[in-house]
Automatic annotation (TrEMBL):
It is a multi-pass membrane protein. Gene3D superfamilies: MetI-like (1.10.3720.10). It comes from Cellvibrio japonicus (strain Ueda107). It comes from the Bacteria. This is Sulfate transport system permease protein CysW. Keywords: Cell inner membrane, Cell membrane, Membrane, Sulfate transport, Transmembrane, Transmembrane helix, Transport. The chain crosses the membrane at residues 23-50, 70-96, 108-129, 149-169, 210-235, 255-279. Its main location: membrane. GO terms for cellular component: plasma membrane. The keyword Transmembrane applies. It is found in: Cell inner membrane. Coiled coil: none annotated. Residues 73-276 form the ABC transmembrane type-1 domain.
Length: 298
C-alpha cells in the first residue's frame, strides 16, 4: 500500500513539475473539485433520471410520446435546426471581418457580439415583443398582412438566434487572431481566388473551433428558456418548446411526466458533451500526429 502511494506521489510529481505547490495542496484541490462536481452536477443529474423512471418505462414512454410532448420536441429541434446554421454563417463572417480586416467600428462590433452574454434572455424576449407585438408600430403592419411573429414559431426562432449568436463567433475570433493572415496572403500570392483561399486554407485551420462553437450553440438553442418563454405565449401543442413543456408539467404536479421530459433534454445535453469530448480527443490526436510528422521531417 505504501509503495502504491509512493508510486502515485512520484507519478503525480512528474506530471506537475512546473508547479510549486505541495502534493497535499494539489490533492486537496482535486478532491474539492470532484466533491463539488458530484454534489452539484452528477447527483442532481442522476436524480432526474431516477425520478423519470420511478413509475416504470411505460409511463416514461407515454410521457415523451404524447402529442404535446412530441410537438415540443419537434419545435425544439426545429428552432435549433434554423438558428445554428444561421449562426454559423454569421459567426464565420463576423470572425473573418474582425480578424482579417481593419475598419472603423471594429471594437464596437466585438462588443455587440458579446451583448447577448450581458443581457438577460428575458430582456431579449421583451425586445422582440416591443418590436413585433400587437401594440408596436411594426405589429400593426404585421397584423394587416396576416403575419404572426410573437406567440408563434418565428418569434421563438428569432429569440433563439439572439441568445445563441455569440457562441460560434467567440470561438473563432481568438483562434483566427492567433493564426494571423500569413497563410491567406501566401495563398493569394500563389494565385488562388478568395473562395479557394477560404475553402482550402482558412476553413481547415478553423474546423475544430467551428465544430466546438456549433456544439455549444446547439446545446444552448435546445435548452433556452427565458427568451423563448416571453415570445412563445405558452400555447400547449403549438408554441411550447421542451423546456417550456417541462415547466408546465411541473406546475401541474405531473412530476413523472415532467422528469421524463427533463431526462430527454438532459440526454440531449449528454450527447452534446460526448460529441464535444470526441472532437477534442480527435483534435489532440491530429495535433500530436502533425507534431510527430514535423519532427520526422526535421
Amino acid at each position: 500500500m505504501a509503495g502504491a502511494v509512493s508510486a502515485f506521489g512520484r507519478r503525480f510529481s512528474r506530471a506537475n513539475e512546473a508547479t510549486t505547490e505541495p502534493l497535499w495542496v494539489r490533492v486537496l484541490l482535486i478532491v474539492v473539485a470532484l466533491v463539488f462536481l458530484a454534489l452539484f452536477l452528477v447527483i442532481p443529474l442522476i436524480a432526474v433520471f431516477v425520478e423519470a423512471f420511478s413509475r416504470g418505462t411505460q409511463v416514461y414512454w407515454a410521457a415523451i410520446t404524447e402529442p404535446d410532448a412530441w410537438h415540443a420536441i419537434k419545435l425544439t429541434l426545429l428552432a435549433a435546426a434554423i438558428s445554428v446554421p444561421l449562426n454559423v454563417v454569421f459567426g464565420v463572417a463576423a470572425a473573418w471581418s474582425i480578424t482579417k480586416f481593419q475598419f472603423r467600428g471594429k471594437q464596437a462590433l466585438v462588443t455587440l457580439i458579446d451583448l447577448p452574454f450581458a443581457v438577460s434572455p428575458v430582456v431579449a424576449g421583451l425586445i422582440y415583443v416591443l418590436l413585433f407585438g400587437a401594440h408596436s408600430w411594426l405589429g400593426v403592419w404585421l397584423l394587416d398582412n396576416d403575419i404572426k411573429i410573437i406567440f408563434a414559431v418565428p418569434g421563438i426562432v428569432l429569440a433563439t438566434i439572439f441568445v445563441t449568436f455569440p457562441f460560434i463567433a467567440r470561438e473563432l475570433i481568438p483562434l483566427m487572431e492567433e493564426q494571423g493572415t500569413s497563410y491567406e496572403e501566401a495563398s493569394l500570392t500563389l494565385g488562388a481566388s478568395g473562395w479557394q483561399t477560404f475553402w482550402r486554407v482558412t476553413l481547415p485551420s478553423i474546423k475544430w473551433g467551428l465544430l466546438y462553437g456549433i456544439i455549444l450553440c446547439n446545446a444552448r438553442a435546445m435548452g433556452e428558456f427565458g427568451a423563448v418563454s416571453v415570445v412563445s405565449g405558452h400555447i400547449r401543442g403549438q408554441t411550447n418548446t421542451l423546456p417550456l413543456h417541462i415547466e408546465i408539467l411541473y406546475n401541474e404536479y405531473q412530476f413523472a411526466a415532467a422528469f421524463a421530459a427533463a431526462s430527454l433534454l438532459a440526454g440531449l445535453a449528454l450527447i452534446t458533451l460526448l460529441v464535444k469530448s470526441l472532437l477534442e480527443w480527435q483534435h489532440v490526436r491530429d495535433r500530436e500526429k502533425a507534431a510527430r510528422a514535423a519532427a520526422q521531417e526535421t
